[in-house]
Amino acid sequence: MKRLAKWRLVSLFAILALALSGCSGKPYLSALRPAGEVADIQFDLMKLSTYIMVGVIVVVMVIFVIVFFRFRRKKGDNGIPKQVEGNHLLEILWTVIPILLLLILAVPTVAATFKLADVKEMDKKNSDALVINVRSHLYWWDFEYPGQKIVTSQDLVVPTNEKVYFNLKSMDVKHSFWIPAVGGKLDTNTDNINKFWLVFDQKRANEAGNLFYGKCAELCGPSHALMDFKVKAMNRDDFDTWVKDMQAVKEPEKATSDLASQGQEIFNKSCIGCHAVTPQNKMPDTARVAPNLTNFGERSRIAGILDHNKEELKNWIKNPETYKPGNEMSGKYPEMTDQQLDALAEYLMGLKVQD
């Protein structure tokens, strides 16, 4: 029975190792493949702490093996071993060594903390820094570019090879803003604004297909694991072009077909009360009850998790509760026929600001 229990334990660890081997190492998602200055700093700290911990384990195991064999009881040894105590050298060593290890870990950690918390540039008047106001909701994300006077949702668009500053706030419960491959994470609270910065490396962005995955890293409800967003990283020229295209949209995109026209009419009757289809921020934070859809046709995912196509869009509109339990969209509009869903999907997929 004891042998059987041991084999069960070995099997459990083998299954655990197999499960961990499936953790994503993809460049758009893995924190172990850093894609920016912040991620590099955090990864270096992770490696440093790991080296220290592994080093301590190796030293302890070596001492354990030496003591086990050298001081084990031998045949004929029936007396009490010689008692050794009060070795000043050993006492000094096991006091000083942990202090040195803590200093080796603490100094770069504190230095990195102050460096990553330096957001003076974004608070300067007439600063050229790119600032993005991130607003988290159940279960979606809103991105406002105050300097450019545009708002988008679910897809965060950023330039590469420069600092991008973020103001983080939650509109309902505590969430946490995290782009694993690039850096973070930092909480979004309801009662204060957190600030930090990230840099998106162009070379590593190319390796990731210029698309990174972002997630909520704070348990916030039944669909917490599904609260994703995507990050489109591009060079500064392409980013400036995107901004100009967004700023050029002054009125809702007009439908380009009869079916899309029917969908636009349905949208104006059922959806416009919550969703905006122009990028300008014409409402206060408290009025943002649903994602901005100005460039919905150019998004990478539907609802942050579904493939971006008409069928998935219709499935989402038909029953969002199936995909994101507890979301704020369920029950907010009348039930639609298949023909109405086709028309609405046709209109929404045509909402684009770039060719």
Q: Topology, please?
A:
Layout: H1 2-21, H2 37-70, H3 88-116, H4 120-123, E1 130-137, E2 140-145, E3 150-153, E4 155-159, E5 163-170, E6 175-179, E7 183-188, E8 194-199, H5 202-207, E9 211-216, E10 228-234, H6 236-247, H7 258-270, E11 301-302, E12 306-307, H8 310-318, H9 320-323, H10 338-349
Parallel strand pairs: 1-5, 4-10
Antiparallel strand pairs: 1-2, 2-3, 5-8, 6-7, 6-9, 9-10, 11-12
Helix pairs in contact: 2-3, 7-10, 8-10
Number of helices: 10
Strand content: 15-25%
CATH topology of the largest domain: Immunoglobulin-like
Helix content: 40-55%
The total of beta strands comes to 12
How many domains?
A: 2
Rg from alpha-carbon coordinates: 27 Å
The mean pLDDT is: 88
Distance between the amino and carboxyl termini: 69 Å
CATH superfamily of the largest domain: Cupredoxins -  blue copper proteins
Query: Quick one: overall form?
Result: elongated
Low-confidence stretches: none
How can the largest sheet be summarized?
5 strands, mixed
CATH C-level of the largest domain? Mainly Beta
Look at the helices and sheets and give the structural class: alpha+beta
